[in-house]
Design goal:
The structure holds 2 protein chains of 2 kinds. Chain A is an all-beta fold. Chain A is built from no helices and 11 strands. In chain A, a hairpin with a 5-residue loop joins strand 4 and strand 5. In chain B, strands 2, 5, 6, 10, 11 and 12 form a 6-stranded mixed sheet that branches. Chain B is built from no helices and 12 strands. The termini of chain B are far apart. Chain B is globular and about 45 Å long. Classes of the chains: A mainly beta, B mainly beta.
């Protein structure tokens, strides 16, 4: 069964460093998303991406964040200068017709720890 | 604005008991979608169900059933004859009905512990 894959599963980084979280969405899906979940809290929307551009972004997704689809398969989230409060589980998701009309399938997550 | 409330933070049941997880939502949209996701201890988010606001029929899938009541803005989830493998955090979520990417608005989750 097709699945969304994320790498790495766990990343530890020093405050102020740049990190890139990688995702391979399901191959025939057109809509891509990043969500984050601070430990023990709810899952929060960060950004959606379609047709090589951002569709929507939340207040959390400030200038420190960027997304890119560098080739036909990968979808990345970059945090330019990490802060302690960026420590969270980051989930990538993909959908073939957009959330609502179809479901979103999530990857297993990348746990980011900023020290 | 979209909002999902899961008032039950944690529930514990003994194996084989039935359990209902509550979900109440708020939206000004007349058409929308509701979802349930399961997050087992391993951390991934597993899709369980998607329901269109037009369709108020209850749905059953094995030991899982969902009760959608538009009049009370609720979309409750019942697990019948619970098993230890059902132990997880369960999230209810809402999305708008519009073309484009949309996104999911999640509740705060209910942690279910099934005791053997």
């Amino acid at each position: 069964e097709p699945e969304v894959t994320q790498t790495p599963s766990h990343q530890v980084t020093q405050m102020g460093q740049e990190v890139i979280l990688r995702c391979v969405p399901i191959s025939n899906h057109l809509y891509f998303y990043w969500y984050r979940q601070i430990l023990g809290q709810k899952v929060e929307f960060l950004v959606s991406f379609y047709n090589n551009e951002i569709s929507e972004k939340s207040e959390i997704f400030d200038d420190q964040f960027s997304v890119e689809r560098p080739d036909g398969s990968n979808f990345t989230l970059k945090i330019r200068s990490t802060k302690l409060e960026d420590s969270a589980m980051y989930f990538c998701a993909s959908s073939d017709k957009g959330v609502g009309r179809t479901e979103a399938f999530f990857g297993q997550g990348t746990r980011l720890t900023v020290v | 604005a979209q909002k999902v409330t899961q008032a039950q933070t944690e529930i514990s049941v003994v194996e084989k008991e039935d359990v209902t997880l509550d979900c109440v939502y708020e939206t000004r949209d007349t058409t929308y979608y509701l979802f349930w996701y399961k997050q087992p201890p391993s951390g991934e988010l597993v899709f369980l169900i998607r329901r269109n606001s037009f369709d108020e029929q209850n749905e059953i899938s094995g030991r899982y059933s969902w009760n959608f009541q538009k009049s009370t803005s609720s979309f409750n989830f019942t697990i019948t004859a619970s098993q230890v493998v059902d132990s997880a955090v369960y999230f209810c979520a809402l999305s708008r009905h519009q073309t484009g990417a949309n996104n999911l608005f999640f509740g705060t989750g209910t942690r279910l512990t099934v005791i053997p």
